[in-house]
Structure formats: C-alpha cells, structure tokens
C-alpha cells in the first residue's frame, strides 16, 4: 500500500478543507452578525438610528438580583437578559459618566459566566476591571449604580471590600492570570471541593508582560484555570493614533489573534483534519499525534498559547450565547487540570451605535444624552495641561530632530495622540508595557535621541526597576513625563499619582521638577529637552491651565497683550522663585506694621500646582490679620533643591510650610532633611510643617473633594498658617487622622 508523505497528506487536507465554509461546521461562529441582529431585534428598543432608546421594562433583569437567580434561565431568556442589561449599563453610565464601551462589549460574556459558574465559590477576575459594570449589576449592586464613581458610591473597578463577588481588585492591567493561578493553586492545596478560577483579560491587557509571565508559569505547573481572552482589537486609548507603527493596534499579538480569525477557520480545519486522518491506513495513524501542530503551522503560523502549555479554544464569537454557554459548561465540567485559553472576538461598544462608530469607542465618557450619544462636557476657556505639554513638545521636536515621544498604550491621556499627528514617525506606542517603555527609552538615549517617555504617574510604578537600573544608574538622559500626578478624581485609588515623589526622590542622578501653572509647564518641557546631563522627571496633574486673567491677578505674571505665552523657555536647573512678598504680589515694602517681628512672618514653599491654593490662602490670611506677613515661593525643583531659596525663607520667617500633591516621603521630607543637616532646626526658633497627602487611599470622588479630604485646599493652608502663628487654637492632627 502506498504511504502518503506528511507533506502530501497536509497539502491534500488543506485543499479539501478550503472547499468548506465556516458555516459548514456547527458551533463555529466568528461573525458578529447574528448577535447584533438579536440585539437590534429585541422588543421595546430602538437602536437603528437616533434617537436611541432601550426597553420600557426589564422583566428578566428585575428578577435577577444575584447570579443564583440566573441558573434556570434558558438561552432565549439569557439573550433577553443581555439586552436588558446592556441598556441598564447605558442608562446608568449616561447619568454618572465612566468606562462605557468596554462593559458593553462583555454583556453576553458576563451573562454566560454568571449563568454557568457559581460565584462567589468560583472566582471570576476582570482585567482590566473597568469591564465590570455588568458584573456589578448582576451581583447585587444594581440599585447602587447611580453612585458609580461618585463620593460615597461604588467604584468603577472591582474591589474586594465592596462585594464578595469581586474576587480580586484591579485598576491596572495584566494581573488577572497571576491572581487566578494563585487562587487555583490555593484551592488545590486546601482540597476545596470545586476549583474554577476564570481570568477575563481584555482591552489590551494581554499585551502586558506580566500576563505572559503568568501563562508561562501556569502551563509549567498545569494549574487548572480558564483564561478568557476578550479580543476586541483595543490596545491603546484611543486605538488608531498615528505612530511609527502606523494606525493599527500597538501590538503584534493583536495582529496575530486577528490572523487566527481571518486566515482560515482555525478550529474547523483541526476538526476536519482529524476526521480525515481516520480514512488513512494504520501505518500513517501516527500523524494524528502531530495533526494539531501541523494545523497550527499551516493555518495560523503556530499557536503561541498552546506552546505556553494552554489548551486553546477559539476563536469564538463573544456575543453568541448559543455557542458561548455550552463551551463554558464543557470547560467547567472538564476533569483536566491543564489551563485553558478561550479566545473570544468581541465588539467594543456592542449594541450602541454611537459607541461602535466613535474613534475611541466611547471608552471613557462624561455624562451623555442617551438618545444621541452626545456627551455633556463642560466648556473650558483654558486648554488641558496634557494638550499644553503635547503642543510644547511639538515645538521642541520642530527645533530638534532628536526629540521623540513614547507612550505605554495611553496616547490620548498623555498627549501623544496630538504629538503623533504632527510627528508620526517619531511617536512610539509600546502597548501596556511600562517596563519596556522605560528601557526602550534608555536604548534610544544611548544612541543620541532625546526620548520623552510619557506615562501616568501611577503606571510608572510598574517600571520602577527600569528607572533605577536602566536609566538612573547609567545616567542616561531619558525624559520621564508623569501625567496625572496627585489625585485624579473618579478613577479612585488605583489611578492616583500620589507616590512618584517618594519613590523617585530616593534615586540618585534624577532631576525632578513640577510646574505650578501652564507657563511653567511649557518652560519645563523645554528645560527637559535642553538638559542632556542626566535623566529628568516632569510631573503634572490632571487639569487645565488657569488662563491669562488669573495668571496676572493671582500669580503676578506680566503678560504681553494679556495673552498666555505659547512658547516655553529653558529654566536654570534647581532654581526656585518667590511669587508673593508680604502685602501681596508686589509686596508693600514694609510701609505698614505687617510682619515687623519675625514671629509674625510665615513662608509657604509650594511644589507643583498647590501654589494656586497657597496664594489664595496667603491673601485670605493677610486680609484677616494686618500684622501677619506671608511670603509664597515656588520651589519648581525637588531634586536638586534650591537651598539658597530655602535658607532665605528660614532666615526671614519663623514658620515654613511646605505644600505638595504627593505622599509622605516626598518634597517636604527632602526639605526637612536639608534643614536638619543645615542646622536650621537646632536653635528651636523655626516651625516647619509639611502638608502632604495623608497616609490613606482616597476613594472615588471629584478632585476637589479628594483634596478637601486630604486637607490641601486653601482653607486648610490658611488654618495651618493661623495655628502656627498662634492666631487661633486648632487641635493638632491625631495619629489616626
């Protein structure tokens, strides 16, 4: 009998498989058409065109308070529940703002998971957990959605202390597989009756290196777990920013998983090849052992996930409950301890045309009109600090071809989308990979480029060792630009930029600066561009500029034609400035009795944008007490400190108050350390108080409310002045406060 060669067999199998369409194989549905038609056809709603509206009643959702209420629903009822849940999310977020489209894309998945698995005994981890709004509604928090991301309300992310159904808290990405593996191993060691741990990883979170570290280890340990890859084409925010890699998602993995879908029906070919092999003589049956490998090689170029030790299932339409539910049931009931990766293709913003059609898919939204999708965004006459940074960087890049920009999947949040439109070939989006971003920048600096590595303060925590080992130790001129420094408002504790001054201030060779206003921000961008003697850090908060009127009246700027300068100037490194003398911006030159004695003189040394609140407080104090004299200075730099400025302030004043938007261990501690070493505290005639963010986490609220809780608004600075100047008796903060 003639034995077919492996190559001949595979060629024959491939040719025969090409004669079949995806619809020839039951259970394989990668198109979104059927699910979308189901959504569009649901009763009592209009999503065919504006005005959009949801169902008048939600009878099935009304019957579901907890996941246990879903167990007896059939597929038809689960579809209707999904439709009602989608509009419940839309209605809630339209009133509060928040992360919209990610949740819309996982409605069917959330329904299927809670129908099949038994939380809280089973663990479901959402990564990034801004996909969790449908999950919150189905786990007893529907009546609390009106307080989503509000002061005293529920978080926009999963939080263990908020609900027993939130298996793991997360605001940063790529953590779910590690956590699920830990839970799986723990359940096994503790001999728990059930061991179902599901990590839902999506919105680009799979691009984070930690996810691969976990998968590598999970395959090695054969940990029983299910990883659901929610593949919605989203990597960066927004996807489609012009960069050196084009406008496609900033991830080769995204292209890889897309090719699994479009190159050939992957699962169909494997099933077909296995069935075809049964027709061959026994002496070629050994080929069956490698059929999966051959199929992967021909169809998709190899399955990365299976090489890491996972059993791969997919790709599957993540909006098709008729396939999704039975697949999850089979995975739940499997006796295998091998980890599984279920690959779902979903549509971010599914079921709401304004989200599906928006360039950012309405990822993060303000309150909006449900009928049209139009957001209610307040009009500001001043530009955002992020846009000011980006446009100043464009100025620097126009003058110097060595200037390049780097972002870790946040081009919109860091201004790299603006920079990328002007300099696409000099804009680099590395995906959710902060460690790589920092060392990537270090490599660029080695070759003479001037990299601006633009990362949220909270996300740079993930690249700390790279800052120390790859940048600072080698004294490479990498420019670290930290947006969202200080508290950030409604995203809550996982996104505050509270700690960068403390964790970066300990590192030698760093120059650390913070602008007090938009003019200073422009100046510091140009300063970073001009400084080549080592790494620099520029931190600034979420917010907008103050505008010309306030800059002149409160800050004392003399603006030509009453216009804010559009060009920045290079600042001398380590040099602060005095903004306000006693008596006001211009001072009163001692013409009255204000501050005649040293005990009546107070200095405020501000670092960052709390300068505004410091100036307001100084004006209020002097209006209240004609004998008090308040000087306000802007430090500008934490490293190096302007020691001459500090000495001047302590020589002339009996009280020194430092103010910053950072935690304990930051700017104020550096000033205190210097004063102690300089002997300024030895004689006991100087009172020093650092005003910092207290040692606690700030839950969701507005930025103003969070600074109010922190005690860093003008009334708190005013109270500190009056207490230290012995004008009022105010109880000292207790250890518990």
From TrEMBL:
Protein name in the entry: 1-deoxy-D-xylulose-5-phosphate synthase
Keywords, comma-separated and alphabetical: Isoprene biosynthesis, Magnesium, Metal-binding, Signal, Thiamine biosynthesis, Thiamine pyrophosphate, Transferase
EC number: 2.2.1.7
Species assigned in the record: Helicotheca tamesis
Domain of life assignment: Eukaryota
Pfam families given in the database record: DXP_synthase_N (PF13292), Transket_pyr (PF02779), Transketolase_C (PF02780)
Recorded family membership: Belongs to the transketolase family. DXPS subfamily.
GO BP annotations listed: glyceraldehyde-3-phosphate metabolic process; terpenoid biosynthetic process; thiamine biosynthetic process
Known partners and oligomeric status: Homodimer.
Domain Transketolase-like pyrimidine-binding: 383-548
Pathway(s) it belongs to: Metabolic intermediate biosynthesis; 1-deoxy-D-xylulose 5-phosphate biosynthesis; 1-deoxy-D-xylulose 5-phosphate from D-glyceraldehyde 3-phosphate and pyruvate: step 1/1
